[in-house]
Amino acid sequence: MRLVEVPQPQPGPGQLLVRMHAVIVKPIETYIRAGAITAS
């Protein structure tokens, strides 16, 4: 996983854009992404 800057998305018709103030990635999620374990 890496931090990158991306352009701000533009919502399409019938969509809305939600601003995130904080997010978290739990260690178990990194193992799932790496394929070390499977989600149940």
Key features of this structure:
mainly alpha; elongated; 40 residues
Question: What can you tell me about this protein's structure?
Answer:
The protein is an all-alpha fold and 40 residues long. The protein has one helix at residues 27-34. The longest helix has 8 residues, at 27-34. The mean pLDDT is 87.
Blueprint of the fold:
Layout: H1 27-34
Shape, per Cα inertia axes: elongated
Can you give the helix content as a percent range? 10-25%
Taking Cα atoms only, what radius of gyration do you get, to the nearest Å? 15 Å
Note the beta-strand portion. under 5%
Question: How many DSSP H or I helices?
Answer: 1
Helix and strand content put the structural class at mainly alpha
The count of DSSP E runs of length 2 or more, i.e. the number of strands, is 0
Sheet with the most strands? none
Name the average pLDDT.
Answer: 87
Spell out the helices and strands N to C: H
How far is it from the N-terminal to the C-terminal residue, by CA? Answer: 22 Å
Task: Report the uncertain regions.
Answer: none
For this entry, what is the oligomeric state of its chains? single chain
